[in-house]
Amino acid sequence: MSDSSTQGVKTVLHPVSDLAKAKAVYAALLGVAPQTDEPYYVGFEAAGQSIGLVPTAGQQGMTAPVAYWHVPDIEAKLAEVTAAGATVKEPAHDVGGGRLVATVTDPDGNVLGLLQDR
Q: What strands lie across the sheet with 36-38, from one edge to the other?
């Protein structure tokens, strides 16, 4: 094993069909207003967690929430999990602000997210 241990699941993205309706529900659930409120992403920070709402219209096959494991080196972790049998679904890419994300599937098809903040 490398020194690229995870920092835990800190981000969960939820695909939603109606961003405005979902935003109201999640604001009520979390008890906070969104920190990011854009047409392509609504993000909440609550209890040390990042909860994101992503419109399904712009997503390629995202049909269920995806938990993102925070890692110090996304490329090293991608290499490690693919060597162990995972398959890259979405290679690492910058989603803004220097944040890199990637997704892989485990042998049963479960989607796992990886996230690196620079």
A: 36-38, 41-46, 49-55, 9-16, 66-70, 111-116, 100-105, 87-94
Altogether, the residues listed in the chain come to a count of 118
Query: CB of 18 within 8 A of CB of 10?
Result: no
> How far is it, in rounded angstroms, from Cα 55 to Cα 40?
6
Task: State both tokens at 27.
Answer: 């604001």
Q: How many beta carbons lie within 10 A of that of residue 101, not counting itself? A: 19
pLDDT in tens, 41-96: 999 999 899 999 999 865 556 788 999 999 999 999 999 999 999 999 999 999 88
